[in-house]
Amino acid sequence: MIRFLLNLLWFLLGGVVMGLGWWLAGLICALTIVGLPWARSCFVIGSFSFWPFGQEAINRRDLSGRGDLGTGPLGLLGNVLWFLVAGWWLAIGHLTSALACFVSIIGIPFGIQHIKLALIALAPVGMTVVPRQTLS
Predict the structure, then answer these.
(1) What kind and span of H or E run contains 128?
(2) From the centroid of its chain, how far is CA 109?
């Protein structure tokens, strides 16, 4: 119940804006065809940005125990390109939102979540989102 209330407050007080920002980035990437590898990451992280509480973003290599295309050298190259083109914009959006949340005591958990999302925004390729129960 607490997770639901936190997610609802998050969504209403700004999560929807950042989630739509991720989805817009994903749509732009998908339209360029060349950006399709980044589009998938944008939509996954965008959905996570809508409802972050109770979920965790982790590296796919840590989850599966083996590497794949997004967690190897091509993933690193993809993350560098992502950072230069769009990653820092989304990270700035999350950091700005975090600062706004830190103004009140109630907003501190939301600010912490925005900081986590800002770090993910810098290098989303190779990441996936899983429920917290999966990690235990």
Answers:
(1) strand 127-131
(2) 16
List, as own/partner pairs, every contact residues 96-102 make where C-beta atoms lie below 8 angstroms and the sequence separation is at least 24, other chains included.
Answer: 97/14, 97/17, 97/18, 100/14, 101/14
Query: In terms of residues, how long is the chain?
Result: 136
Task: Round to the nearest angstrom and report the end-to-end CA distance of the chain.
Answer: 20
Q: Residue 40: which domain range?
A: 2-132
**Helix, strand and coil in the chain, % to nearest 5:** 70, 5, 20
- Name the residue with tokens 């009140």: 104
Residue 13 CB contacts under 8 Å (≥ 6 apart), including other chains: 110
Based on the structure, what is the number of domains in the chain? 1
> What does pTM read for this prediction?
0.83
Spatial distance between the Cα atoms of 60 and 34, rounded to a whole number of angstroms: 22
For 70-111, how does the pLDDT look when each residue is reduced to its tens digit (9 = 90+)? 778 888 898 899 899 888 998 999 999 999 999 989 889 889
pLDDT at 2: 84
Average pLDDT over residues 55-60: 86
Please tell me the distance from the alpha carbon of residue 108 to that of residue 117, in angstroms, as a whole number: 14
